[in-house]
């Protein structure tokens, strides 16, 4: 029997989503609780990795068990009593279709990065906003940020903006939309893509800030993107400001898989 979980977590205390041998990841904690609950080894498969310190408002994971001893609808309450308070299960359901895969069936992933706009907001920002955001030490405005990020939409090889240890054989990804929302004292940057390379969003945001700080031309990010050279993009925004917001399993931009495109 395959069960799908919809969960959220604050990533501050974890080495990312994916299980690790020498560090505590969200997947480690979840699997330990599930294994104890069902009295068998339970392994999960997630919709994708999140880096160390990155948060998730929606992560999707599935696991397979021999026999479901607990009504699926009651599983969130049972798990939440045993999980630490920074990991919560929002929903559980039984997977009926044979073709569903939390990672490969996903069509769109939405990440959000929150930037404080003004220097004063480092000290006066809402307590919870401050915990999940970053102030890069410069004044920011929606128009400038939007103009700098817009050229990154579309299908590109994002080698420039990935970590050196990214294991993806193909670095081609598609960003469908980048939306910058102005909130009181902050900018919310929502990036929608079919998939993301390791540290890709944090690298994009970090180098966007580098562009502003050093008065680079508005085409600078597109310029270094086309070079496909990660040595040109050494800046990386802190993990605290990044959240995986949602994973979509339906088409919302008329997208196709990037590797099927010509």
Fourth-level CATH superfamily of the largest domain: Pseudouridine synthase I, catalytic domain, C-terminal subdomain
Overall residue-averaged pLDDT value: 92
User: What is the β-strand count?
Assistant: 9
Low-confidence stretches: 258-262
Number of alpha- plus pi-helical segments: 7
Q: What would CATH call the class of the largest domain?
A: Alpha Beta
Strand content: 25-35%
Sheet having the most strands: 9 strands, mixed
List strands and helices in order, with pairings:
Layout: E1 2-9, H1 26-38, E2 44-46, E3 55-64, H2 75-82, E4 87-94, E5 108-116, H3 121-124, H4 127-131, H5 142-149, E6 154-157, E7 172-183, E8 186-193, H6 200-213, H7 220-227, E9 242-248
Parallel strand pairs: 3-9
Antiparallel strand pairs: 1-3, 1-4, 2-3, 5-8, 5-9, 6-7, 7-8
Quick recap of the structure?
The chain has helices spanning 26-38, 75-82, 121-124, 127-131, 142-149, 200-213, 220-227; strands at residues 2-9, 44-46, 55-64, 87-94, 108-116, 154-157, 172-183, 186-193, 242-248. By secondary structure, the chain is α+β, with helices and mostly antiparallel strands.
Q: What does this entry look like structurally?
A:
By secondary structure, the protein is an alpha+beta fold. It folds into 2 domains: 2-94, Pseudouridine synthase I, catalytic domain, N-terminal subdomain (Alpha-Beta Plaits), CATH 3.30.70; 108-260, Pseudouridine synthase I, catalytic domain, C-terminal subdomain (Alpha-Beta Plaits, 2-Layer Sandwich). Helices cover 23% and strands 26% of the residues. It contains 7 helices and 9 strands, in the order βαββαββαααβββααβ. The protein has helices at residues 26-38, 75-82, 121-124, 127-131, 142-149, 200-213, 220-227; strands at residues 2-9, 44-46, 55-64, 87-94, 108-116, 154-157, 172-183, 186-193, 242-248. Strands 1, 2, 3, 4, 5, 6, 7, 8 and 9 form a 9-stranded mixed β-sheet that branches. Strand 7 (172-183) and strand 8 (186-193) form a beta hairpin. The longest helix is centred in the C-terminal third of the chain and has 14 residues, at 200-213. It is globular. Mean pLDDT is 92; it is low at 258-262.
């Amino acid at each position: 029997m395959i069960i799908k979980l919809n969960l959220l977590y604050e990533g501050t205390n974890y080495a990312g989503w994916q299980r690790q041998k020498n560090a505590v990841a969200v997947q480690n904690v979840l699997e330990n609780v599930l294994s104890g609950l069902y009295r068998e080894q339970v392994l999960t498969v997630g919709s994708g990795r999140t880096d160390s310190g990155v948060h998730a408002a929606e992560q999707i994971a599935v696991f397979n068990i021999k026999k479901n001893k607990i009504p699926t609808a009651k599983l969130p309450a049972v798990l939440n009593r045993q999980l630490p308070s920074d990991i919560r299960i929002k929903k559980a359901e039984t997977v009926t279709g044979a073709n569903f895969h939390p990672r490969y069936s996903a069509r769109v992933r939405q990440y959000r990065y929150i930037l404080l706009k003004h220097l004063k907001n480092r000290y006066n920002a809402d307590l919870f906003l401050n915990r999940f955001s970053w102030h890069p030490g410069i004044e920011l405005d929606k128009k400038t940020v939007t103009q700098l990020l817009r050229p990154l939409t579309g299908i590109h090889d994002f080698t420039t903006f990935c970590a050196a240890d990214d294991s993806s054989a193909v670095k081609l990804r598609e960003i469908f939309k980048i939306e910058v929302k102005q909130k009181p004292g902050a900018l919310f940057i929502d990036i929608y893509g079919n998939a993301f390379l390791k540290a890709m969003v944090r690298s994009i945001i970090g180098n966007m800030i580098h562009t502003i700080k050093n008065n680079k031309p508005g085409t600078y990010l597109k310029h270094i993107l086309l070079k496909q050279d990660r040595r040109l993009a050494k800046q990386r925004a802190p993990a605290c400001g990044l959240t995986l917001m949602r994973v979509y399993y339906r088409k919302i931009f008329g997208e196709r898989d990037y590797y099927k495109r010509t």
